[in-house]
Target: Probable phosphoketolase
Amino acid sequence: MNQTTTTLSESELELMNAYWRAANYLSVGQIYLMDNPLLKEPLSKEHIKPRLLGHWGTTPGLNFLYVHLNRIILNRDLDIVYIAGPGHGGPALVANVWMEGTYSEYYPDVSFDEAGMTRLFRQFSFPGGIPSHVAPETPGSIHEGGELGYALSHAYGAVFDNPDLVTACVIGDGEAETGPLATAWHSNKFLNPERDGAVLPILHLNGYKIANPTVLARISHDELEQLMTGYGYKPYFVEGDDPETMHRAMAETMDRCFDEIAEIQRRARVEGVTERPVWPMIVFRSPKGWTGPKVVDGKPAEGNWRSHQVPFSTVRDNPEHMELLETWLKSYRAEELFTPDGVLLPELQALAPKGKKRMGDIPYANGGLLLKELRMPDFRDYALDVPKPGAVEAEAPKPMARFLRDIMKMNDKTANFRVFGPDETASNRLGDLFEETDRTWMANTIPADDHLSPDGRVMEILSEHTCQGWLEGYLLTGRHGFFSCYEAFIHIIDSMFNQHAKWLKVTDSEIPWRRPIASLNYFLTSHVWRQDHNGFSHQDPGFIDHVVNKKSEVIRVYLPPDANTLLSVTDHCLRSRNYINVIVAGKQPAWQWLDMEAAVRHCTSGIGIWEWASNDAGGEPDVVMACAGDVPTLETLAAVKILHKLAPELKIRVVNIVDLMTLQPKEEHPHGLSDRDFDDLFTTDKPIIFAYHGYPWLIHRLTYRRTNHPNLHVRGYKEEGTTTTPFDMVVINDLDRFHLVADVANRVESLRPQAAYIKQYVRDRLIEHKEYITKYGEDMPEVRDWKWEE
Amino acid sequence: MNQTTTTLSESELELMNAYWRAANYLSVGQIYLMDNPLLKEPLSKEHIKPRLLGHWGTTPGLNFLYVHLNRIILNRDLDIVYIAGPGHGGPALVANVWMEGTYSEYYPDVSFDEAGMTRLFRQFSFPGGIPSHVAPETPGSIHEGGELGYALSHAYGAVFDNPDLVTACVIGDGEAETGPLATAWHSNKFLNPERDGAVLPILHLNGYKIANPTVLARISHDELEQLMTGYGYKPYFVEGDDPETMHRAMAETMDRCFDEIAEIQRRARVEGVTERPVWPMIVFRSPKGWTGPKVVDGKPAEGNWRSHQVPFSTVRDNPEHMELLETWLKSYRAEELFTPDGVLLPELQALAPKGKKRMGDIPYANGGLLLKELRMPDFRDYALDVPKPGAVEAEAPKPMARFLRDIMKMNDKTANFRVFGPDETASNRLGDLFEETDRTWMANTIPADDHLSPDGRVMEILSEHTCQGWLEGYLLTGRHGFFSCYEAFIHIIDSMFNQHAKWLKVTDSEIPWRRPIASLNYFLTSHVWRQDHNGFSHQDPGFIDHVVNKKSEVIRVYLPPDANTLLSVTDHCLRSRNYINVIVAGKQPAWQWLDMEAAVRHCTSGIGIWEWASNDAGGEPDVVMACAGDVPTLETLAAVKILHKLAPELKIRVVNIVDLMTLQPKEEHPHGLSDRDFDDLFTTDKPIIFAYHGYPWLIHRLTYRRTNHPNLHVRGYKEEGTTTTPFDMVVINDLDRFHLVADVANRVESLRPQAAYIKQYVRDRLIEHKEYITKYGEDMPEVRDWKWEE
Ligand SMILES: Cc1ncc(C[n+]2csc(CCOP(=O)(O)OP(=O)(O)O)c2C)c(N)n1
Ligand SMILES: Cc1ncc(C[n+]2csc(CCOP(=O)(O)OP(=O)(O)O)c2C)c(N)n1
Ligand SMILES: [Mg+2]
Ligand SMILES: [Mg+2]
Model:
């Protein structure tokens, strides 16, 4: 499979190899040196960093690929984004971006000369310097590559709707063992060569991960070839360790691959071929730590896992290691690569593309630069008619779906909006989207298929990881998106959320040249309270808890209680930038509370008294009944009605929370209420009965500094559940109307005389409930048919 | 590839098909009926459940496979565990387990007759009944299958060290799209046919998931075959929709597969062949909702995604649907399958294995039955010699590694202990394990390889999902295990943790016949404070927050501050049952505080005053300095030293917390301190400065009900980080000794007069620190060389 014919001239080859040597030199320098970058003096203690931090093993391979991609860009005038799956190879990307001149443009202090080279070396993994990974700080990066697994889904996400872009996606053979990566290969069934760009996966088979060989390096050539073919690719193998041979083979192979990509795109775009093509990919088998020391302390280093991190440390105090380092550095013959002033020789500079074609400067990798506003209709036009609170029943996501559908339509030309989900779009009541678009599908179809097409803009694959990775890649390259998911299973991407939140935190607060991108919007539905078909395994509202641990600057959590608030919140989220927005709302038919005007007011404040449900106007209440989430809101209102009947004199204030972050102190979150505002809403001394959608402790964590916190009593999901009726779910978690009534009776001093009666009433109703559902299998009529009546 | 020769006799075929019809009948009955199970009366409203909940689509396929596996068990006297990846097909497993008689033995109320059948139907997805999935309630289940993706890793985990077991693992073609499943195929590179059992993966290619076709059903036969071959399997295709043909093909194929499995095992066990074999697997392509209604309301149902859940509802009020249901049920001709008393005909009963061979009654699936105590040396023998606090520096995991090594040795014969990790065992300082065992490895090897062998008992693959899935399968079948992982990346399995915690909660509290299994033990290291090589993406201590949302009965969290406490905690965790234990401790050289005796005392209480670090003996302190976690403990002690110097009269109490759950109220967690004990430790009115390993809010969430909570001030990780020095990491999160000193100065009233001086001292040190590290790249000598001196 290796190509033997050559396309590289001798001089080209020599230059490319020199370029590679320079990148390798600069990489080793970053890991080891803090001074004397050109080795003008003999290497000595003061030149060596006291702490040697970084990863060498993957770096020469990444460098090797960079210069070959540069050649492709120059020869073909292409736009390429480089994704380094092994993001721990930070030195490689930084070196190359510096060599092409980009780095000094973004960071003028790190100039393109000896002084700059000193800084370049010193800053790497150094306090006050730059991280060891291909972090947001690295120009050209959209992929930090710290947590392994997402390189390929990011790569695909980046090229959807970017027909002129190719991502070259380097995948570590270790990373290839992760689940998210193993399924991301199937993304080719969702890539339309007519409308989308292309991904060139390069499996970096350097044989090892941290301390183990990799699985894919230790199966037969045949098996690996079949695996890649089975995934739908045409694999090309570039294998060896002799630089010259490898340069020739890689140049030849890249030419073939890019020829094939061009041909696939031509067939689709010019000839109108619509079948899924077989895309090329490269298996790049080369030694880990290539060109590094062959042996360290008597053990193999090059071509071994031992070169994964820093191949040898204790350089300062170990003369042998000092010599080893010097020999290693000198093996690159820097004097043939740089002027005495530390400038890369002009003939080498010529190997890098210019301007925006440089992979370090490509605008796609700073997506905010390309971001176009999403065209959006007025969400008020999709309002559900709610003549009065509790008069209409509806499935909240449906109006939102129509809103999304029309956003889809309005941005059809710009092609910068997609909806993602793990096979739940229809089930989550977003089916109206299919009036405007289809599901993306490039695999085989049959006539009975439902809304599948290569042009679809709804992306469904049963992999939350892939959905998340695609969406991140899509957003990071300057587009907009929306992710709907079962609430419980969004935990599958907890760690991916972490990484994206960290990326946003850094870009938002520390990297001015990174322009804001569209927010990542989650719509979590099929939530804990309505898992009628499923049960305990599908009941988990904890994603919110996970989210609020991240920087308050980048996270937002909304619990709209009905359709119009959901619409308003959705509109807000889609307009926002650099956030992660979490929206939680049910999909089942439910009572509607607010007309659009009230909904907008309520969502704009994020929290507020529902006057129509309260009877304490003009004075202080006896109790505050707070609620956040659709089901808790229903139960609270039903409890209020019962209390009105049982204790008509009781003054109740109903407070509904849409924006959970309002509960936090202002100093903790930009949406936080001031203490004064909080105290005015919740009083400073009255009992608060708080019905919350999720784990109750979260409310305490958000409010423990508030004046009235000692009187706050929260009900929520306490990890009880099974397949049962909707009302029984709230009952077994003590969140139902009856428990709430009892909570009030237990805490309001003025009810003391009646408390026993009230609690007996509650007990009786709960017994009735259990008996009824066990007999009839559905909720009691008084619950099923409950209605808010003025 | 389909077999045309037949091995089934006509009568066998007829009986098997009848058995299948019976299972299908009982499945439909469970979904739809609450009475009239044998249709002795014409179907009418009262017989139909008011809420129709469940999943039909996958069910006939699961039933089909069950009867074929029964045949294999009978013919070959095998032990087979059935794993239903599409666990939503609960009715199938329940039906079959009932038909083989197991169900009535476990649940005598659901007897093996008409009354039992009525209950069987009624209870399914019914309040007070059973869940819709293959839940812990289902005899024979070790896999609930609610959250898709883990079937195959569970299947492999179950057969490691169980040479006589085969798991038949049904994988939905939808589930096959998930990341965890896509990589779990590679588990065959870790399965040793000599010592382990076998897995027969059956890819259930019914073409659809919820509302979409599946990727694997819509690639060519060739691609699918190559994919499976590439994964290292020999795929057999059984494809079609004619029951007779399919029965013949399946019987033939299963015979082949089990022949091959037997032959592989024979070669390995008798002939000593050590190469990785190519294991068989089955691609079972059959219609979704097979034998269900072909058309519902004018739309295709059988063979379409529309039959995924309940193919049609509103039966009670829709005469057409009522008729459809009756026709459907009658198509199975129950009268030919059951006696008028609802007993399965004896000739059909004969098709099920007997006793413990029944898949519903197989002891492997109730692992606690088989659980053998882990033989363990006295952990005290591994104690680190700590002559006095702070006199010795050590890497805490190392003594633990030696302890684990010897546990490995002592249980070598019983072969019921393994250690799991994503390629980090050595890096996490557990390398001493390799003195006793190797890494499991069945793929190719080369001479330079390090401790790889088919007999290794350390399982490393770069997939946290696979490690977790293997371990769960291993534990659920009655063995012991230990999982070490980078702290940040354990979030990758957040959702898997959820599912296992839910499983344990249900088995522990609700299912007496499920015997306790060994706890799932996490050792989280390379933690947030010491990501020297990596940086921000590797910094996340939030797994603890995630864990504490689950039922307190099943979760435990430990933060041992040094080596001896880590040993003691590890011993405790390995002896425990039905828990998930989370242990967090660093791997870097660090000061040691407690000798073994003190460590045991401290760990047994879980929390305590460190007298040697306190100077308030005999009275009340001015301030309580609490700490949990190794790095916070170090900073607290260093702060105490500074305070002793700056304010010698200040009375400081140092409280260290190993067992985080002691902080919670007793009512919330079995380890929680009583309020009295808590108040005695933390006082009721003195400032508490709490230095915590993770996100500080968690401490508030655990303690908000405690008397002295208003005076509690917590420092922890506030999501600031990068690649920097160890001390700078605590500084940028305000957790360092200097900030702690300032916190004390800010809060202790008696220090008021000196506060300005103290705070200026702190400021100056912090400025010095920043200047020093930016210049020298490592921490100031006073920090690096800090030592606790009496
Ligand atoms: C999800 C995840 N688990 C574990 C790690 C720890 N880790 C860092 S690098 C590495 C090995 C990577 O091997 P490979 O992908 O082959 O990269 P390369 O050989 O090019 O360095 C591991 C396991 C990680 N970064 N991410
Ligand atoms: C991780 C995860 N994501 C989403 C779901 C929701 N869900 C339930 S069943 C299903 C389709 C399953 O399809 P398949 O595996 O083919 O099973 P079958 O066709 O046999 O029902 C989906 C997406 C889930 N259960 N788990
Ligand atoms: Mg590698
Ligand atoms: Mg399917």
Summary: Confidence is low (pLDDT under 50) at residues 1-5 of chain B. Residues B 172-174, 206, 208-209, 214, 288 surround magnesium ion (ligand 4) (CB under 6 Å). Chain B is about 35% helix and 15% strand. Chain B touches chain A through 128 residues (CB under 8 Å).
